[in-house]
Amino acid sequence: MVEVMIDVEVMYAAVDRQLLLAVSVPPGLTVREVVRRSGVGEAFPELNLDECPLGIFGKVVADPQSRLAQAGDRIEIYRPLLADPKEVRRLRAAKAAEARARNQ
């Protein structure tokens, strides 16, 4: 008997390289389980696949341990932010205001 499989992609982009894996998995697996089975952990051993944030097509999955993967999903593994975007914008605005004040 032939087991039905679904096709999904698993994507990870490190600072220096990226990897897009096409994988076939049995239906009923969670997003987290698909990532574990994909082989991305062998390519990037520094990843903690049990805790890293995951998303599908650019949208964060709130609970990847319970969200089931669907055929055609592109599961993305997200890296932690190096800097808070709000803080970076605030500092940039303060620096621009300081520069304007000096030029007046």
From TrEMBL:
<comment type="similarity">
    <text>Belongs to the UPF0125 (RnfH) family.</text>
</comment>
<dbReference type="InterPro" id="IPR037021">
    <property type="entry name" value="RnfH_sf"/>
</dbReference>
<dbReference type="InterPro" id="IPR005346">
    <property type="entry name" value="RnfH"/>
</dbReference>
<dbReference type="Pfam" id="PF03658">
    <property type="entry name" value="Ub-RnfH"/>
</dbReference>
<dbReference type="InterPro" id="IPR016155">
    <property type="entry name" value="Mopterin_synth/thiamin_S_b"/>
</dbReference>
<protein>
    <recommendedName>
        <fullName>UPF0125 protein IMW75_18270</fullName>
    </recommendedName>
</protein>
